[in-house]
Amino acid sequence: MNDTRRKPKMTHVLSTPQGRRKAWWHFQFIDHAVIRHWWWNLHEIAPGVWRSNHPSPARLKRYKAMGIKTVISLRAEIDKSPMLLEAEACKALGLRLVYARGFGSRMAPRKDAFASLRAAFQDAEKPFVFHCKSGADRTGIAAVLYLVMIEGRSVEEALQQMHWRHVHFKRSSAGVLDHVFRVYIVARDATGISFEDWVATAYDRDAITASFALWRRGGDWKSGIKGAST
Fold this sequence. Notes:
Layout: H1 17-30, H2 33-36, E1 43-46, E2 49-52, H3 57-66, E3 70-73, H4 81-93, E4 96-99, H5 111-123, E5 128-131, H6 138-150, H7 155-158, H8 176-191, H9 195-202, H10 205-217
Parallel strand pairs: 2-5, 3-4, 3-5
Antiparallel strand pairs: 1-2
Helix pairs in contact: 3-4, 5-6, 8-10
């Protein structure tokens, strides 16, 4: 009889030589660190504020030399090779590592993720860098949110951070992150509501996800969105 039970998720350990080797190979070839060795997707979006893809321990040393003091990870805090190696390196280098939860690369953020990220940004000692895996989608929306919520930039200006030059593609499934702001802009133009007030009073993750599916098909994506009707 087939065993249909779900297998436990893979975890790694760094406490043994064998575990460390396994984690390192996983990091290089399953998490694609071997590509990120040459490609950092590193950009300064405001004075002392940097975005990038997931750094290796060697790159974290470079960040330390650049003066970076805080690293904000948009990835899950789990016992897998990228997070374990990053946490170990940050501790050794004296870099503060912070996790901002609630963001995915193919889904609208959880409502509480916006306030959590704002708090992480405000609490981070500069210079700081924030990252996801590739520095494209989750990092892109985080860059937009920094510029809007902390710098007071317009959404339209900030949305330049979600661009193909950062390997973000609006019509892919990751485009749901752009759609968050598309829906907001309609509500803002109709009512003048600020972004953070809109998140607090009208943000509906499920409705935005459904609306994005309609937008991709060329349908009436505004229907059913609270605060998006004119």
